[in-house]
Amino acid sequence: MRERIALRVWRERLLPLLLATGLVVLLTGCENTDMQLATEAGVDAFKAVTLSDQDVVELAGKSSTLMDNEHAVAPAENQYAKRLRSLVGDLHEQDGYTFNYKVYLRDEVNAFAMADGSIRIFSGLMDMLDDGELRFVIGHEMGHIVKQHTAKQLRLAFAASALRKGLAAQEGAVADIARSQLGGLVQRLTAAQFSQLEEKVADDYGLSFLKAQGYAPEDAVSALNKLAGLGSGHSFLSSHPDPALRAERISLQIQGKALSIEETQKNLLITIKQKMNEWYNHLRKIVAGLIKSLAGQSDIKRGAV
């Protein structure tokens, strides 16, 4: 009975504390682990709970339409549109998501994705990269969608927007939104930046995309190195982590000298589980020994009496 009570106290009070402490110790001891691996999940708690997944897709679609109306979209017969079609082909569905692609005729090095599956490439970026490098960029943007970075970004922008008050009272789907209100949300979305961890995850997805499609993985490295050559003062680099460092990380992965973020997370969780089991078994033995020792002392006292 005493042993069962002691083990229950251990499980309910001591073990959770040790788990938390052990997680911090393990994370700080892993040189190649981004500390955001431990904190990124906490951002999800800040989601605007009034937006369902369906609402996110609908609102992202409205935002994409507004962006398309405010840019010069390359028509089907345009050389940029033809080139993009030759790159994506029939690749409109993957990992449970549906994608649509367009080119903005604008001399700017940029690309972005929306949570509804919209991927937009600026003609300035297409002028800069060859076909293989563009495929990596497309795969990278797909990664932001599949890994739900764009959905989280929209929720955060929505939570910080005046739209939240107006739509919170609505039940279900997003109601009609005034153009001025939607424009304010789009401004927040376009100004928002993905975290370094999210950019790495999207890079990993882009690399996997190239490999899965049978394209040269080295195109990912050359694309990032070209972006790094834009110079520190370029607007693209002000909103993205250093492409040169990202290129180096991807290059090490191709050489088999580094792991992807997903592989690192899996290995970290396995390590934590193993350590927790070791600590649990070790402390269980200690507790059992203490209980046995206390029981022995109690028997001695009774014998003395």
From TrEMBL:
Cofactor binding, note field: Binds 1 zinc ion per subunit.
Pfam families referenced in this protein's UniProt entry, alphabetically: Peptidase_M48 (PF01435)
Coiled coil feature spans: none
Cofactor(s) needed by this chain: Zn(2+)
Gene3D superfamilies: Metalloproteases ('zincins'), catalytic domain
Keyword Cell division appears in the UniProt entry: no
Keywords tagged on the record: Hydrolase, Metal-binding, Metalloprotease, Protease, Zinc
EC numbers for this chain: 3.4.24.-
Peptidase M48 domain boundaries: 99-251
Protein origin, superkingdom: Bacteria
Molecular-function GO term, any one: metallopeptidase activity
CDD domains: M48C_loiP_like (cd07334)
Entries under InterPro entries matching the protein: Mito/Outer_Membr_Metalloprot, Peptidase_M48
SUPFAM superfamilies: Metalloproteases ('zincins'), catalytic domain (SSF55486)
Family: Belongs to the peptidase M48 family.
Protein name as annotated: Metalloprotease
